[in-house]
Amino acid sequence: MPKNNNKKEEKEQAKVNELRARLSDILKSDYEDFYLRKWLKARGFDINKAEQMFRNSVAYKTKMKVETLMAEFETPEDVSVVIKNYLTGGFCGHDKEGSPIRVELYGHLDLKGIMASVKKSDLEKTKILQCEHTVLDWERQSKKLGKRVDGLTVIFDMEGVTTKMMWRPGLQMYLHLVKILEDNYPEMLKRMFVINAPLIFPVLYKLARPLISDEMRNKIHVLGATYTDTLLQYIDADQLPAFLGGTLTDPDGNKRCVTMINQGGEVPEKYFLDIKELYEHMKTATITRGDKLELEYQIDKPDSILRWEFKTEDYDIGFGVNFRKNGVTSVILPMKRVNSQHVAEDGSITCKETGTYILVFSNSFSWVKEKVIKYWTEVVQQEEIMNDQFTLF
């Protein structure tokens, strides 16, 4: 081994030893150097930051009762039904190094429905359980293969993703759950393959980028629609679901591997709760009877995306989108009544032309009741989208 590498190893080991000494009050005696090194690596071998990260994690895991969570975690019946039937993804097989594989079906995920039906704490506990499952799998695989097995390979399938996945609270919640993994199980993610990346992927990535660490970004590989050959470089065919190009199926031959991978779907409204924090980011306006609220946006760059989200407190509302250019107004989305009193309505359009786009909220359907509306809007310009680099195969 070259001398420079020896010196690097010695310096890193010295930091591991110092970190162990600093954490002696809370560190279990059987905690290996290998795992301490992960905390240091996650914080660029800054001992102070690694120590704080470790202590924060111990406090968080104590609060969440992680040691007994797998045996004792119970959720209300309706919540467990939603998580079991609609929270997409699952573990299936192992990669060529023995690490577990998790498939995420992001395009089948009704995150708005899940967030309207499940408390944030229950979603956090579910993510922790997934991480603890991975740790246990490492132990089993290490014994089975006679070598240390570590890391997690994730296949992030974006088939079916539309602009609905740009709903900011949902995206923030999803990334919050990812952050739980990063903050409490450092270096767990070995690699992530993003497959079937849609045209709006750069937009989604731009929205998510501030919440993704540089360390994680370097592990993300965007494959698009041609991915099977690359996946098979890292995963044997009998460990890769058949619908992704492998040979793994359910016992009945189902290529979707539904016994291992939750397929998700739209959450029925009967499970919805009144979770007010979903709407804290919105502005509020009152529309008097027979009146309307118009929000104008001047779009100067073609292919910009105009996004919106709104919810009324008690009653439905009329909603439409108009376009004005050179003094002429035309209809983009015809006015229609929307039952946004139950769950927030969201959507977006790609602004192909420059001009003024107008979101119209109309209370003209009611001559008796005023309407209180909460709303949020955003314009994403095309030039802002491709401001980062992806690892492409």
Write up what this structure looks like.
This protein has helices at 3-22, 33-42, 47-63, 66-72, 77-86, 111-115, 120-145, 168-184, 201-208, 214-217, 228-234, 382-385, and strands spanning 90-94, 100-105, 152-157, 189-195, 220-224, 283-287, 292-299, 304-312, 317-325, 328-338, 345-351, 355-362, 371-380, 391-392. The protein has 393 residues and is an alpha/beta fold. It has a six-stranded mixed β-sheet, with helices on one face. A four-stranded antiparallel β-sheet has the order 6-13-8-11. α1 packs across α2 (33-42), α2 crosses α3 (47-63) and α7 crosses α8 (168-184). It is elongated, with a radius of gyration of 24 Å. The two termini are 31 Å apart.
Strand line-up across the major sheet: 1-2-3-4-5-14
The coarse overall form would be: elongated
What fraction of the residues are assigned to beta strands by DSSP?
15-25%
N-to-C order of helices and strands: HHHHHEEHHEHEHHEHEEEEEEEEHE
Q: Could you give the distance between the termini?
A: 31 Å
Average pLDDT metric: 88
> What ranges have pLDDT less than 50 throughout 5 or more consecutive residues?
384-393
Number of strands: 14
Give a short summary of the structure.
This protein is α/β, with parallel strands linked by helices and 393 residues long. It has twelve helices and 14 strands.
List the helices and strands and how they pair.
Elements: H1 3-22, H2 33-42, H3 47-63, H4 66-72, H5 77-86, E1 90-94, E2 100-105, H6 111-115, H7 120-145, E3 152-157, H8 168-184, E4 189-195, H9 201-208, H10 214-217, E5 220-224, H11 228-234, E6 283-287, E7 292-299, E8 304-312, E9 317-325, E10 328-338, E11 345-351, E12 355-362, E13 371-380, H12 382-385, E14 391-392
Parallel strand pairs: 2-3, 3-4, 4-5, 5-14
Antiparallel strand pairs: 1-2, 6-13, 7-12, 8-11, 8-13, 9-10, 9-12
